[in-house]
Amino acid sequence: MRNIINEQIKVITEKRLLNYIEIGKSYPSTKTSIFVVKKGTITFTKSFETITLAKNDIYFSFANGFFELIAISPDIEINIIALDVELFSKLSFEFNRLDVYSNQFEIPETIVSELWKLSEVLQLNLIKSKSKFNTTILLNLLSVVLYTALDAINTYHDFTTKGVMTRKQELVFDFLNLLSKHYKKEREVSFYAQKLMVTTRHLSVTIKNITGKTANQVIHQYIIAESKVLLASSNKMISEIAFELNFNDPYYFSNFFKKHTGLNPTEFKTKNKKDYIYTSI
User: Any residues with CB less than 8 A from the CB of 155 and at least 6 apart, and which?
Assistant: First the structure.
């Protein structure tokens, strides 16, 4: 019987990358991931920021916001270790996300090679689902990967002068974390402002300043992306999807969806059936 942990970890190589996501499509980011680039470049948008990773870059991606792949070079060599949020939260390693706003770092080629080899060993052990010590081996390998990356970052990057969040950036980060948990049920900016103990106006102005989008636009982007996934990848009726996203009236949901996409839900579902998936990144 396959261990649960084997389902909570994925190692995605450049050969498998486009099997999980498509260029130019926006997906809810559902995993905590570490990107390791050995060669080439990859460009994507994450939480309203366009990021390009190149040779010897590593990048930490957390389960908030959206991920949209923009471009990958033909010579790309990349390993992405993607973890379920529940598993990530259980791992005890010293990385305070609130201390670092920029999650992209260049590290020495020797350490990239070391992380590459560890990723390959991790991938091999994911196959050994019947091994008696499988869970222990995988957890320890994950710890080695994460601590190796963190040790390199701490050695070669000075956090006293670079990467520290401003209060406004931290507020947006916290908002996106909350939104990723509650967007299916809560669409009012006031709900998030109350949770973050700030005024609705302050939250709205801050989000606009940092992301270039209003708070309502960000919330609506979450709902539309989730709607697209549900419409294209499930057999649920449109009324079921509307109720799942806390629309009491399917007609209102249809109007909301068409306003933001130009298509009504039925048209979108027909055109994109099974074309959207939940990204493993």
Answer: none
Phi, psi torsion values for 19, nearest 5 degrees: -80, -20
Sheet order of strands, 26-28 included: 26-28, 66-72, 42-46, 49-53
The Cα 89–Cα 83 span in angstroms is 10
Which stretches of the chain drop beneath a pLDDT of 50? Answer: 1, 96-101, 160-162
| 173 Cβ contact partners less than 8 Å away, ≥ 6 residues apart | 64, 97, 98, 101, 165
Burial 187-204 (b: 16+ CB within 10 A, else e): bebebbbeeeebeeeebb
pTM of the model: 0.73
Residue with tokens 């809560």: 186
At residue 220's C-alpha, the angle toward residues 217 and 224, to 5°, is: 135
* pLDDT confidence of residue 269: 87
How far is 171 from 198, CA to CA, in rounded Å? 9
Of the candidates 19, 20, 25, which has an alpha carbon nearest to the alpha carbon of residue 268? Answer: 25
